[in-house]
Amino acid sequence: MTDFTYSLGDDGVAIITWDVTGKSMNVMSLAGFAELDGHIDTALADSAVKGVVITSAKKDFAGGMDLNVIARMREDAGAEPAKGLFDGVMMMHGVLRKIERAGMDPKTLKGGKPIAAALPGTALGIGLELPLACHRIFAADNPKAKIGLPEIMIGIFPGAGGTTRVSRKLGAMAAAPFLLEGKLSDPKSAKNAGLIDEVVPAEDLLTRAREWVLSAKDADIVKPWDAKGYKMPGGAPYHPAGFMTFVGASAMVNGKTQGVFPAAKALLAAVYEGALVPFDTALKIEARWFTNVMLNPSSTAMIRSLFINKEALEKGANRPGVPDQTVKKLGVLGAGMMGAGIAYVAANAGIEVVLIDAAQDAADRGKAHAEGILAKGMKRGKVSADKMAEVLGRITATTDYAALDGADLIVEAVFEDPKVKAGVTAQAEAVIPATAVFATNTSTLPISDLAKASARPANFIGIHFFSPVDKMMLVEIIRGKETGDVAVAKALDFVRQIRKTPIVVNDARFFYANRCIIPYINEGIRMVAEGVAPALVENAARLVGMPLGPLQLVDETSIDLGVKIAKATRAAMGDAYPDGAVDEVLFALADQGRLGRKSNAGFYAYDDKGGRLGLWSGLAEAYPVSDTQPELTEVQHRLLFAQVLEAVRALEDGVLTDIREGDVGAILGWGFAPWSGGPFSWLDILGAERAVEICDRLTATYGARFTTPALLREMASKGETFYGRFTTAPAKAA
Ligand code: NAD
């Protein structure tokens, strides 16, 4: 198998073409790197070669490093992983540096061979780091192409010279969006930013690169940082302007990451320290920090959950083997907040939608919701007038169930009331084909109970969206007792069409996501009732990587919803109901009309425009803060274990059947500390033995809700990890 081919033209320009066999997008592997190295050696050694163009035979240049290679780097690095990783990264630096120096005399900087990169399309990660080592970067004028270094998004940073080269090329300030935020640009914007050198018509790409190679002079191929008197644009750290940049960047990184994402901090350190030393030493520093990040279990856990496993689930890792179930006509019942959102995402994905509500104006309001989202997109230049008309043209807003004729999927999102739901189920089933699948978007009612209203329970399923539908990427698919494989496949194919990420779970109270998130909120509220400072609760959550503290979260989702859920749960559980202390606080706030953000009053105080001012001062009066406060870690353990124990129980109970879904679902569904890779990954990082120890102590101090699950105890006694124990099960293989 070859990844790169080599050919020498009559004009003396060698063309190295990247074309990984069997893949639509080039990705770099270690073997590929070795091949590239060999071709560079050939070109530099052959006196007939005047210069080189590196390009791709595919429509894009490259998507980056093969993520599976990155995820395994630590394990593959040998008995001394730090040394193995560092040596591996230095090998890459060696190859790229060889390209950059291109055989020139290191003293006179003369005699090197010009090497240009010609990018037909997207160039990401190592797919841009390689061009950055070349002497000139040409990109085809392809507005769809994305150029950038997205490594930070997967919990690492550009470690093949991208960090050092981009910061030296643009200066720390201008490099920040590309390195720290992983900003991607089209070729023209990338040229304007100084990331690449030329944008040329696609058909001229190779010719222009060749011409440049043949006309380049010695001085054209010396990088600024290799020339005498190089100064970092915008100033190095000890320059007054540079000093300001680095101080500001450090504060910004800490503010954004709360110190829990190791990559951003390491990246900044690599840029800062690298700026103080010569280029080759800077590369070594970059390699050391990269090794540091790769050795942190957070990076591999994030890559595993957020990329490898997320993609596996999107590609149907748990899809039953039935024929394609692509949705052609969707019926949405209930045009409220959820129904309107579902209608929009489906129409946007090209599906014909009938949006039904009890009254025409309600149905119209639902369609207007889609119009609002599209209009916003138009303002930002992301949506054309044609596209808007096309998407809206796919939505029929009506009260007439007859319009559902021929629909192959229904998603019901009417009031959370079994009677109302039963009514619309019967009405829809009277019209739709016998093969159509009926899905409910209920968030609390058991699917198997709602299925009783259906004449075809095998075709009845839960498709649980999260709010706001257009932004939240997770969709929870719930199998009822009688749900058949075709319905599951239909739901999965629908989720694929609307480009979201599915998890498939079995039917139980609150399914998976809400089952874990409710104890998190409750634990936060419980602490307030105990006299723990509310600010400590909120900050502890943020500092462990939760996007919102539990009190802010309940304000956002609304306190009256919390009251409703508490009442329903109490009714279902009777004497076993454990959350009386929580309800006291929740009900008291609701009684005072403090319903959260929607009423501009909740655990937080808000200004007239809805801006959050800070924790409500009345809280301290009702629940005085104790003189002695718990340690930060104790609060964090309570907040995290409240969630992860529920995830483990969901696995024990068979609600979850695949830990990958548990991890991916947690991060996408409620933002569970993404740095950890999800609840199961976090427990693996912690180690089952230590987790049991903490659980036992929490149980002794705070009660039975922290009881160690038998599964975890068994794993601790056997020294097992979740990913060691579960991912190899044949039924769950991707
Ligand atoms: P909503 O009150 O905003 O919308 C419900 C809509 O259903 C209203 O427009 C109402 O007019 C319509 N409706 C009621 N009875 C009807 C009938 N007989 N025929 C046709 N239309 C009827 O509620 P929502 O927040 O959109 O929630 C809808 C469903 O989604 C509920 O089951 C809820 O539990 C679930 N859900 C809500 C959220 C959330 O965050 N709001 C998240 C996930 C799931």
UniProtKB/TrEMBL annotation:
The lineage of its organism: Bacteria, Pseudomonadati, Pseudomonadota, Alphaproteobacteria, Rhodobacterales. This is 3-hydroxyacyl-CoA dehydrogenase. Keywords: Fatty acid metabolism, Lipid degradation, Lipid metabolism, Lyase, Multifunctional enzyme, NAD, Oxidoreductase. One of its GO terms (molecular function) is enoyl-CoA hydratase activity. It catalyses: a (3S)-3-hydroxyacyl-CoA + NAD(+) = a 3-oxoacyl-CoA + NADH + H(+). Pathway: Lipid metabolism; fatty acid beta-oxidation. Residues 329-507 form the 3-hydroxyacyl-CoA dehydrogenase NAD binding domain. The keyword NAD applies. Signal peptide: none annotated. In the central section; belongs to the 3-hydroxyacyl-CoA dehydrogenase family. One of its GO terms (biological process) is fatty acid beta-oxidation. Residues 511-606 form the 3-hydroxyacyl-CoA dehydrogenase C-terminal domain. InterPro entries: 3-OHacyl-CoA_DH_NAD-bd (IPR006176), 3HC_DH_C (IPR006108), 6-PGluconate_DH-like_C_sf (IPR008927), ClpP/crotonase-like_dom_sf (IPR029045), Enoyl-CoA_hydra/iso (IPR001753), FA_oxidation_alpha_subunit (IPR050136), NAD(P)-bd_dom_sf (IPR036291). The keyword Oxidoreductase applies.
